[in-house]
Amino acid sequence: MHLVPLPADNVMPFPAMPGASRPARPSALPERPEPTWSMAAIARMLGVNHRSERWQRAYFNQLIANAHFPKPLPTMHRGELVRDVVPRRSRWLPAAVTAWIGGQLPSEAAEQLASEEATAAANRLDAAADSLFAGPLSGGDAA
Question: pLDDT tens for residues 59-73?
């Protein structure tokens, strides 16, 4: 079989997507909200995705038994409805997992985080207000 090269003038370049138009993902959470999360997605959030599937299953079972981690939604496995952790099939509600992860922070760390978030939000609002009134119509200093 002989391949004939195509002339380069009939090839349209794919338009490059500008990097600035796509915001960086702040965390391991999916870009668009999913109705349920898989064991693999939660393992990534917990930092154990490099472990084997067997180890992850045992880890999730221990979290459920000893750390009040939410149980997965019921799923069909081998023709029966099960509530056990079944790799590649078990799904969790994002709100339950997020609440559990949030509950793992010590109260001092949670208060510190909330304080830092409130300060950052107040700083953003102040900066937005300053830029709003710093235009050419403001007439100079607003002291």
Answer: 999 999 999 999 999
